[in-house]
Amino acid sequence: MFIHRISNEKDACVDEDNVFESLQWQSERRIGDMKPKVLLNRVSFWCVTAVTSAALMQSIAPVTAHEVKIPTEVTDLGKDTYKKYCSPCHGEEGKGDGPVARSMLPKPRDFTRGAYKFRTTPSGSLPTDEDIYRTISFGVPNSTMIPWDILTEEQRVSVIPVLKSFSEAFEVRKPDSPVEVGLRVRPTEKCLAEGKKIYEEKLECWKCHGIEGRGDGPSAAEQEDDFGFPIKPFDFTTGKFKGGNSPQDVYLRFTTGLNGTPMPSFAKELTDEERWCLTYYVMSLIKPEETKK
Amino acid sequence: MKKFGIGLCLSAMLFTSVAWAAELPPKKETPPDLYEGTPDWYRATYKDNVGLREGSGPFKDYFKPQMLDMYWQPNRHYEPMKNLDHSIFIEKERRDLCITCHEEATPGVVRDWRGSGHKNPKSTPYLSARTSEIEKRTNRILNEVDCFDCHADTKKKQIRMPTGEVCGECHRPQFDDFLREREMGRPNHIQSWEANTIVPWYAEAARRGYLYGQHGCDLCHSGAEKCDVCHTRHKFSAAEGRQPEACITCHMGPDHPDAESYGESKHGVIYHKEEEHFDFNRPLSEVRPGKDYRTPTCQFCHMYEKHGRFIHNPVMKGIWRMGTIPPKNLEYTSSLKDYPYGIKIIGDKIDIYSEENIAKRSYWLEVCAKCHSDRFADTYLKSLDEFMFQAHTLADRAQKIVEDLIADGYLYPSAADRDPYPLSDGIEKQLSPAFLGEPIYNAFKTLKGKFPVVGPILGVYGMFIQQQDNPSNIENMYNRLWFWYKLQGYKGTAHVQQDVSWWWGQAPMMMEFTKIQSEAARLRREGRIEKVALPK
After folding, report:
1. From B452's CA, which of A182, B12, B330, B460 has a CA 20 to 30 Å away?
2. The domain A189-291 belongs to what CATH superfamily?
3. Which GO molecular function annotations are given, in alphabetical order (chain A) (predicted)?
4. ipTM score of the complex?
């Protein structure tokens, strides 16, 4: 989809609006009708109009914060919700060892380590409450973690303190402040070429993800997560990124890293601009025909 | 744009392979050794070359190998060619002349090779990528792998049969994965030649003039040193190796009807009907269940190691293994309660519910859950456990009848009046308490093998050799019960073939049980009559 849109343009120059249109099309197909999506669309709208960078930054992270009140204490509602909807996979005590976990791949998250893959906070940090809320609401594609928009907002936020209670880390540490997403760079051909160079030469991402992003690089099969489970990178050319398929989502992954996995943060190795270019290049690897199956 | 993309990818691949070639780190690792970690006596009797002069294993001096063992177990038994001297071609490294001559001498071989990935190792992006990994590992450029690379022993200037150790020079990850079969113990492929000739009845049969009756044994147990058993020579096609038919020449028949039970199951039938839609060019780890395979293959189930990871061997998840070793979780009435009788070289009772086996079961469920609910899969495999517990119980009851008959002195002819256990003299001479444990070894030493040996594992000799009145009819009735019908029902149940489970399994087990009861009653009746008619 992405590639096709680009090629339809007059001189193969990437048009920002079109990129967003196509990406929104993808997110609509996958996420369905739910509030956070609508909110994200609003984020996209802001991005497109790009009023000020300050406005942008505000619209990324706190977007859920002013909408929902996240409790700090474990409540009966939280316990009940977790027990009924979460514990079959994640286990009574959040160890990722629920009764159906044994045959599931990827394995359900073990919350006792305080290691969360998808955050707005820097590498190694705990997630913010909003990060956890976002993952619960959006789900994790390429896994059995469905979007829990079927639950009420109140139910969803109620389990956040429950999840946090499984790891001591939340008692002794505070999450670092969310990274600043900043203003998107224009996804020009030059930028895409830069992204490709980073992917193939500078960081050699193909070693794990393969040259086409199919997860078949030479080191793919031997990757392991911090929980001792193999974590072969999935084929992301379907466009179903686990942490969300907007450019911001992908940019955030490169900026924050995926805690508990061998996928590090590139906040230090790459400038903000380079990470945007890498984002666009990675998204250009999406093959639309694969998304249909 | 699409073409441009493909071009980009290809050129990127080209670039990366050039980059690799430039790096070429000279990695020092020990040369591939199929016998890594084995004791000296073992290496001396299985690996050290003796040509066709001697056998192999602890009883090597009691038999000579079969002629084909040159090819089945080359390290131990290969002998150089005598009719046409090949040394000049090797000395002058005339790779071309191998092909020129054999194009006419053995055209089938050359055509196989021409169609193989070895002839064109850079013909697809996938092959190129794998080839550059090998180039990096071996520190050489490989535009082709030809006859010379596999068959020319440049030190001895002789033609060789390439064992897995030769293949492992390039395919080290596959070699190392294969080596890991040892972790699980027998039965496996890497120790298959060991299992073939370590049993005393092999040499005993040879001693009695039935060496070549065991033709099929050597052929079937030849997967220890040969890597062309699944992906056959000289095409060495991975796609061929991934198809169930690659296994069925060996895995079939009365003691392991794997081919029949899989092939006639819904898994197998759907595969047969939809084979053309199965994509066997994908490595197992890239297979998308339901899309590339609608039903699983032998390889997909058995080469799955755990947590989404595949391994280049099919034995890592075995729980009930062959189906012969009794489970720890039952109480036995026969001497099976004392199994393995202090013997060190046979497998101990299997604890089906050990931590290790529960984990292995969960790895099986990971495979099943790709297409079935965990609940359905788990319920099915729990039923397999129940089938096996009950089948082992039935076998124990049958063994009890046979053993009571022996204890009461009704075995006819008795152990005193029949041949001893096969190769008892060799057992006493070549083995020791370190192999058999004190009590069993002493029994061989003092009684010279003049005693019955019944049941799993070492009681199975009667399935393979008939000596003078040893075994008796009833012993082989029981052998068929636990070594044929129990195993058939086991594989039928495990591979989801209902008819094999019942009509090749449980039902004939019952019918052997019928015969055993009748035979026991007959022997007891005749024995009692004899006591009255011929009083001592």
Report:
1. B330
2. Cytochrome c-like domain (1.10.760.10)
3. electron transfer activity; heme binding; metal ion binding
4. 0.82
